[in-house]
Specification:
Shape: flat
Number of domains: 1
Number of strands: 0
Structural class: mainly alpha
Distance between the termini: 29 Å
Number of helices: 2
Order of helices and strands: HH
Largest sheet: none
Helix content: 25-40%
Strand content: under 5%
Length: 83
């Protein structure tokens, strides 16, 4: 595991103390690199959950996107989702 439970708690505490709206998510038993299909570490359930969280963040929590960037909003998912 890249970041152990103790370190995750330190990160949570620091973010909370700084007043940062945050969520720290870890997937029990799922190794680093779980996102990529066709690899031994791939986890469909973890990837689907992580992707849902990423899209929700891009869709709701970030300020408006930069319309000057190539590919601005071509995905239809968010003004902040650049492809």
């Amino acid at each position: 595991m890249l970041i152990d439970a103790g370190r995750r708690e330190q990160i949570r505490g620091a973010l909370k103390a700084a007043g940062v709206d945050h969520e720290v998510v870890s997937y029990a038993g799922v190794p680093h690199g779980f996102f990529w299909p066709g690899t031994p570490r791939f986890s469909q359930a973890a990837r689907d959950d992580a992707w849902t969280r990423i899209v929700a963040l891009l869709d709701s929590d970030l300020p408006g996107g930069n319309t000057a960037l190539p590919g601005y909003n071509i995905s239809g998912l968010s003004q902040n989702c650049y492809v």
